[in-house]
Amino acid sequence: MKKLLFVLCLMGAVVSVQAQLKFGAKVGLNIAKVTGDDMDDAKSLVGPQFGVFADYSISDKLAIQPELLYSMQGFKMEESYEGETYEGKLKLDYILVPIMVKFYPITGLSLQAGPQLGFLVSAKWKETGEDEEDVKDDAKKFDLGLNLGAGYELENGLGLDLRYNFGLTNINKEDEMGDMKNGVFSIALSYRF
Fold it and tell me: What pTM was computed for the model?
């Protein structure tokens, strides 16, 4: 572990010497859903995403962009029973740490990919006619995902990112509920200072 940490620090030092460092902020919307066992009826939940990033330009064609984001995710479901329609909504709030590798095939346009760590802040379940319920103890506190996306940046620092996060880990602690994974499409505006 110490050797790995040393190598990562050494790589970071080499990259930072050659890199051009810029900081920025971003704000956007998620269209989130949970996929997996018994989740065929799940519908998308729209929520906010915002945070900050650092952009390390290694060359004209390659950059690394670590981010720190707040992200609202989850899903909603509708069910009809005896002529009544009931809605349930699971709202999952995460602090996300994506580390994106950005490749620029042409000036301004980036293709992006990278891992994402998610740390659960809160989990709330709300049904029609019922009080909101804290279900954080039923969800795993850590989520690992893979982001794929694209973006376009103007010379003045404004940018637009489109990204999809494929959840790789089961977010559900309860075995009887089956496998559940996050799936989130996001669109975000960014500004590099």
Answer: 0.83
